[in-house]
Design goal:
The complex is a heterodimer. Chain A is of the alpha+beta class. Chain A is 44% helix and 21% strand. In chain A, the strands form two sheets. Chain A has a seven-stranded mixed β-sheet, with helices on both faces. Chain A has a two-stranded antiparallel ribbon with strand order 3-4. Chain B is α+β, with helices and mostly antiparallel strands. Chain B is elongated and about 125 Å long. The chains are: A alpha+beta, B alpha+beta.
Chain lengths: 327, 689
C-alpha cells in the first residue's frame, strides 16, 4: 500500500509538471481527486484494511491528499501566470514609436514677460490699469510737462491721427489719466503698446511695449523708488541682480534717473524713472506739498531680448513658430 | 559731445591729476553718458551724451564745472580781459529786433583790420579733436569759443552788410539765401533770419550766408553772439532741414550772460591771433533783462523727497561748487540761480542737483511706508487672462502682431469698399508704405503669420491673438479688443497609422475652440448661425451670437484669400469681440450631482440635406422638455441607403428627472412625440423605427 501511494505521488507530480493550461491542471485534479480519481479510490478502499493498518495508511493518504491539493493550487497559479504572460507577450508594442499628443499652445514670449512683470508689481501692491493707445496731446504731452514746442513732440517721432490725437508714445499717459479722475494714495501699474515713428528693422519697431507705474502718497521718497525697482529687478533677473540708478532727464520727473541692471556681464538700460515733477501733480490737481510721487517706465522687448539673447526685434512680430516654441 | 581731456585739465585746477579712466566711470554717475573714450596722441577724447535740459554741457566750461565740483578743484574761467580801441562799435553797427519773440539778447562786436589766415596750430588741433574742420583764424575762433563756452557765434564780413545794420526778423515770402554750404534756399515764411538793411544774410542761429562769409580779403568782422528763442531756431532748422553745431546749442536754450562773455572772449582772441583791433564797446540789445532767480531749498523737503539725510553743509557745498549763491536761513537756503543754470526753476531741480552730486548710489533702498497688499486686477483684465488661458489650453499659440497695416491688406482679404472694416483710421504722417493705417481686424495680421510659417516650411499653425482694433467713433476714435484665431494643417503629433480625419484641421476644429471658449466662460444662450463673409468660404462660415447680439464670425478662409496668402491649403479663422465675451461670462455655478439614473436613447432620422443639425436639435429640445438632459448628433451619413438629396443624422439623447427615476414607458412616450414633431416639421423619416 505504501508502495502504491509513493508511486501515485510520483506520477501525480509528473502529471502536474506536464499540465500547461488551467484545463490540464483541472484534468490532473480529476484524475486523482475526482469521484473516481485514483486517490479518491484509495481513500474509499481504506475501510477494507485491517484496523491496525487503517490508521497508519489513513494518515498517509490524508497527508498525500493535502500535499496534492497544495501542488494543484501552486500549479494552477503557475499556469495562470504563464498563460497571462503569453497573452501579454502577444500584445507587445514598440514603445519607441512617437506618442500621440495634441500640439500644445504656448504664450508668446512678450505675453509671458508682460504677465511676469505685472505679477511682480502686483505683489508690491500696484493695481493694474489700462488706457487708450490713441491719445490726446493733452495726456500724452502737456500734462507730462512737455509743452507744445518741446523737441519730444516732433511729428518726426510720433504718429498723428489729427492735430490733437496721436498714438501714445509712452504708457506714462495712463498715469495722468488715472490722476485726472482719482485721488491719492494711488499705486498703479500699466502695460501696453506704444508707437514711435520708426521703420521695422532689427533694432526698431513702430510698435513696442512699455510698462509704466507710479505711486502717489504722502511721504513717498526717491529711496522708495530705488527700493521698489530694485526689488522688481531681483524678482525678474534673480536675487543677485545688481541695479544701477544714474541721473538722467525727463520733463515729467525731477529728480530723474536711468535704471540699468547688470546682466550677462554688462549693464543693460531697462528704463527711466524719477520723482514726478511737481508740475505734473499740479496739472492733475494734486498738491505737491502734501503728496510726493515716483514714476517709472520700463521697456519690455529689450529686457526680454537680453534675457534670452534674442538679437533681432522682428522675431517678436514675425511669429515664426520655431521661435515661439522655444519659450 | 566730444571732449578733449587735456582741455578739461586746463580748465580745472586740482591737487590730484584727473585720471581719464576713473572719469569714464564717474561721468555717468553725474548724468553724463559716456558713449566712447578715444585715445588721441597723448590725449584722450570723451564722447559724452548730454541731457536736453543742460545747454551748459555743450561747452567745455560746463563739463569742467562738474569736474571741479566733484573734485573740489578750482574752475579756471577763460580770460575775457579785452583791449579796445576807438571808435566805438556803435558808430559802425546797429541791431534791431523786428519781433521780440525771436531773440532775447543780441550782442555785436566789431573787430577791424583783421588778417585772415590760418589759425594757430593748437587751436586747429582742438577743433579737430572735437570733430570740427579748421577754416581760417576768424571762423575757427568763433567755433573755438563755441566749444569752450557753449555759446555759438557768427562772424560776418562787415563790408557785406548793407548799412551796417543787423535786423532780427522772420523771412518774408519768396526771400532767398545762399547759405555757407553753397545751397540756395528759398526761405520758408516765418523762418528766423538775420537781415541787413535789405536782405537776409543768415539763418539765425543755424548758418550764415555766403555773401557775408569771411574771406581771405575780409578786413572788418561783425561778431554776432545771440540768445535766440530756442523754439524759433528749432522750427526754422526743421523747416529748412538743416541742423548744425550752432542750432543744436541754440535749441537747448541760452544763457544771457554768456552772450556777452563769449563776444568779448572771441574779440580778444581775434585781436591776438588775427592782428585785429577791437572797437570799443558792444552793441547790446536786451529788451527784457531776465530778473535774478531765487529758489528756496528747504532742508526738510530735501530729506523727505530723497529719503536720506544729507548734511546741510554738504548740500550747500554741492550747490556752491556748481555755481549757485546761497543765503542760508534756519530751515532753508535761498539759492540764487546763476545764468548758466536757467534749467533750475524750482526746489525739485535743486534737490536733483544735490542728489546728483551726493551720488544716487548713496541713497538707500527703502520700501514705501504705506502697507502693501496685492494690487488689484480689474475684473475685465482677470477675465481676459482667463480667455487667454482657455485658448492656450485649447492648443493655440499666442502671437503678437503689429497694429498697423495698409488698405492693401484689406483688399487682400476681400473686404469690400463699403464694408465697416474699411473704416481704418489713417495716420497723418506714416513713415513706411506698409504701415499707413490702424487695423480694424486681426484677420490680415493672422493670415500673414500663417503665410510666414507656411512659406518657411511650417505647415501646422494654430494661433490666437487678443489685440486691439481701432475705429472712428463720433468725433474721435474707439479701441476694442478682439480675439482672433487662425488654424491650419495638422493638429496631432504622433500621427503614424492614423487616418487623416484624426488629425487634419477642419471647420469643426475651429468651431470646437470657439465652443470651448464660450462654454468655459459659462456664457448662456450662445449660438452659431450659418452666415457668409467676403473673406470666408461662403458655405463654410458662421456668425457667433449671444442672445440677439452678433459678437463675431468664423469659417474657412475663402480660397482666393488663401491663395493671396500662399497658404496652399485650407485654413480656418475666427474673430470675436472680447468685450461681448466678458460681459456675458458668468462665474461657475454649482449644481448638485444627479440622484436618479439617466435613460439613454438614440434617434436616427433621414431629412433633406439643407436641414441643419441645429434646427433638428432645437425641435428635439422643444418637444423633449425639461427631462431631456442632453442631445448631441453623433453620426451623419449620406450614401447608398439614403435617398438622393437627403442625409441620415443620428442623435444620442439622455433623459433624466431631478426628482425621480424615469420609467421606460414615459421616455418612449416622449421619444414618440419627438419623432412625430420631426416628421411634421421636417418631413423626417425615422430610421430603424
Amino acid at each position: 500500500m505504501e508502495q502504491e501511494i509513493r508511486i501515485l505521488r510520483e506520477e501525480a507530480e509528473l502529471d502536474l509538471q506536464r499540465a500547461e493550461s488551467p484545463e490540464a491542471v483541472e484534468a490532473v485534479r480529476r484524475r486523482y481527486l475526482g469521484k473516481r480519481g485514483r486517490l479518491t479510490q484509495l481513500l474509499r478502499g481504506l475501510g477494507a484494511l485491517p484496523p491496525g493498518e487503517r490508521a497508519r495508511v489513513g494518515a498517509l493518504l490524508n497527508e498525500t491528499k493535502e500535499w496534492l491539493l497544495a501542488q494543484l493550487e501552486a500549479r494552477a497559479e503557475a499556469v495562470r501566470v504563464l498563460a497571462l504572460e503569453d497573452r501579454l507577450r502577444a500584445e507587445a508594442i514598440d514603445v519607441t514609436l512617437p506618442g500621440r499628443r495634441p500640439i500644445p499652445g504656448r504664450p508668446h514670449v512678450l505675453g509671458r514677460t508682460i504677465q511676469e512683470i505685472l505679477e511682480i508689481f502686483r505683489s508690491m501692491g500696484f493695481e493694474v490699469v489700462e488706457g487708450p493707445e490713441i491719445e490726446t496731446e493733452e495726456f500724452n504731452f502737456r500734462r507730462l510737462n512737455i509743452p507744445d514746442d518741446h523737441p519730444a513732440r516732433d511729428m518726426q517721432d510720433s504718429f498723428y491721427l489729427d492735430r490733437e490725437h496721436l498714438l501714445r508714445t509712452q504708457v506714462t499717459a495712463v498715469d495722468v489719466r488715472v490722476m485726472a479722475v482719482r485721488r491719492p494714495p494711488l499705486r498703479v501699474v500699466s502695460i501696453g503698446r506704444c508707437y514711435r515713428r520708426d521703420a521695422l528693422d532689427a533694432t526698431h519697431a513702430p510698435v513696442f511695449h512699455q510698462v509704466d507705474g507710479f505711486l502717489v502718497d504722502e511721504g513717498v521718497r526717491f529711496s522708495d523708488l530705488k527700493g521698489v525697482l530694485s526689488r522688481f529687478a531681483r524678482e525678474m533677473w534673480g536675487p543677485q541682480t545688481r541695479v544701477r540708478f544714474q541721473p538722467s532727464y525727463f520733463p515729467f520727473t525731477e529728480p530723474s534717473a536711468e535704471i540699468a541692471v547688470h546682466f550677462g556681464g554688462r549693464w543693460l538700460e531697462i528704463g527711466g524713472c524719477g520723482m514726478f515733477h511737481p508740475r505734473v501733480l499740479e496739472f492733475s490737481g494734486i498738491d505737491p506739498e502734501r503728496y510726493t510721487a515716483f514714476a517709472f517706465g520700463l521697456g519690455v522687448e529689450r529686457p526680454a531680448m537680453v534675457r534670452y539673447g534674442i538679437g533681432d526685434i522682428r522675431l517678436f512680430w514675425e511669429n515664426d513658430l520655431r521661435f515661439l516654441n522655444q519659450f | 559731445m566730444r571732449v578733449p581731456w587735456s582741455w578739461i585739465q586746463e580748465l580745472v585746477r586740482t591737487s590730484d591729476p584727473l585720471d581719464p579712466e576713473a572719469w569714464a566711470e564717474r561721468f555717468p554717475m553725474l548724468g553724463l553718458g559716456v558713449e566712447a573714450v578715444e585715445r588721441w596722441g597723448d590725449d584722450w577724447v570723451f564722447d559724452l551724451e548730454t541731457t536736453a535740459n543742460r545747454p551748459d554741457w555743450l561747452g567745455m566750461v560746463g563739463i569742467a564745472r562738474e569736474v571741479a565740483a566733484v573734485t573740489g578743484g578750482d574752475l579756471v574761467i577763460p580770460s575775457v580781459a579785452l583791449e579796445e580801441e576807438d571808435p566805438p562799435a556803435q558808430t559802425l553797427a546797429s541791431v534791431t529786433f523786428e519781433d521780440p519773440n525771436l531773440c532775447y539778447r543780441y550782442v555785436a562786436r566789431m573787430v577791424v583790420e583783421v588778417q585772415v589766415g590760418p589759425a594757430p596750430r593748437w587751436m586747429a588741433d582742438r577743433l579737430e579733436k572735437c570733430g570740427i574742420r579748421s577754416i581760417n583764424n576768424v571762423v575757427d575762433i568763433t567755433n573755438y569759443v563755441m566749444l569752450e563756452l557753449g555759446q555759438p557765434l557768427h562772424a560776418f564780413d562787415y563790408d557785406g552788410i548793407s548799412g551796417g545794420r543787423i535786423v532780427v526778423r522772420t523771412a518774408r515770402a519768396g526771400e532767398r539765401l545762399v547759405t555757407l554750404d553753397g545751397v540756395e534756399r528759398v526761405l520758408p515764411e516765418g523762418a528766423l533770419v538775420i537781415a541787413d538793411a535789405e536782405r537776409p544774410v543768415a539763418l539765425g542761429g543755424i548758418m550764415g550766408g555766403a555773401d557775408t562769409e569771411i574771406r581771405p580779403t575780409s578786413r572788418r568782422v561783425l561778431l554776432e553772439s545771440a540768445w535766440f528763442n530756442p523754439v524759433a531756431v528749432r522750427r526754422t532748422a526743421r523747416a529748412v532741414g538743416l541742423r548744425t553745431e550752432a542750432s543744436t546749442r541754440h535749441e537747448r536754450g541760452g544763457d544771457p550772460e554768456r552772450v556777452r562773455i563769449a563776444a568779448a572772449r572771441a574779440a580778444e582772441l581775434m585781436r591776438r591771433y588775427c592782428g585785429g583791433r577791437v572797437l570799443r564797446g558792444e552793441v547790446d540789445v536786451y529788451p527784457n533783462p531776465e530778473p535774478a532767480r531765487v529758489v528756496a531749498l528747504r532742508y526738510g523737503r530735501l530729506r523727505r523727497v530723497l529719503g536720506v539725510e544729507i548734511p546741510r553743509e554738504e548740500a550747500e557745498r554741492i550747490l556752491r561748487r556748481l555755481g549757485f549763491d546761497l543765503e542760508t536761513r534756519e530751515d532753508r537756503a535761498l539759492v540764487q540761480v546763476p545764468p548758466h543754470r536757467r534749467d533750475v526753476e524750482r526746489e525739485e531741480d535743486l534737490i536733483e542737483e544735490v542728489a546728483r552730486l551726493w551720488g544716487y548710489e548713496r541713497i538707500p533702498e527703502t520700501m514705501p511706508l504705506a502697507e502693501m497688499g496685492v494690487g488689484r486686477l480689474p475684473e475685465e483684465l482677470a477675465r481676459e487672462r482667463q480667455v487667454r488661458e482657455i485658448l492656450l489650453r485649447g492648443g493655440l499659440t499666442e502671437v503678437f502682431t503689429l497694429s498697423l497695416l495698409h488698405p492693401r491688406d484689406l483688399d487682400r482679404v476681400r473686404i469690400p469698399p463699403d464694408h465697416p472694416l474699411r473704416r481704418a483710421p489713417r495716420l497723418l504722417n506714416p513713415l513706411t508704405e506698409e504701415h499707413t493705417h490702424l487695423r480694424t481686424t486681426l484677420l490680415p495680421s493672422l493670415l500673414e503669420v500663417l503665410r510666414t510659417n507656411r512659406t518657411r516650411g511650417i505647415p501646422d499653425v494654430h494661433i490666437f491673438e487678443i489685440g486691439r482694433v481701432y475705429f472712428p467713433s463720433g468725433e474721435g476714435w474707439e479701441e476694442r479688443k478682439v480675439v482672433g484665431i487662425a488654424r491650419m494643417g495638422r493638429m496631432l503629433l504622433g500621427r503614424w497609422n492614423l487616418p487623416e480625419d484624426f488629425w487634419e484641421t477642419t471647420f469643426y476644429h475651429l468651431k470646437g475652440v470657439v465652443e470651448t471658449l464660450l462654454e468655459e466662460l459659462h456664457i448662456p444662450d450662445w449660438r452659431l448661425v450659418p452666415e457668409a463673409a467676403p473673406w470666408l468660404h461662403p458655405y463654410r462660415a458662421a456668425s457667433v451670437w449671444i442672445g440677439g447680439e452678433r459678437i463675431g464670425w468664423m469659417g474657412e478662409v475663402h480660397p482666393e484669400v488663401a491663395e493671396a496668402y500662399d497658404l496652399r491649403g485650407r485654413a480656418y479663422v475666427a474673430e470675436v469681440a472680447l468685450a461681448s465675451l466678458l460681459t456675458h461670462a458668468r462665474p461657475p455655478e454649482f449644481r448638485p450631482l444627479p440622484r436618479y439614473p439617466a435613460v439613454d436613447r438614440d434617434l436616427a432620422v433621414v431629412v433633406r440635406e439643407e436641414v441643419t443639425a441645429a434646427e433638428l436639435v432645437e425641435e428635439i429640445r422643444r418637444v423633449g422638455g425639461p427631462v431631456l438632459e442632453a442631445v448631441e448628433a453623433f453620426d451623419v451619413y449620406t450614401g447608398p441607403q439614403v435617398p438622393e438629396g437627403h442625409k441620415s443624422i443620428a442623435f444620442s439623447l439622455r433623459f433624466r428627472s431631478p426628482d425621480r427615476t424615469l420609467e421606460a414607458r414615459e421616455v418612449e412616450g416622449i421619444l414618440e412625440e419627438i419623432r412625430q414633431g420631426l416628421r411634421q416639421r421636417f418631413g423626417a423619416r425615422i430610421r430603424g423605427a
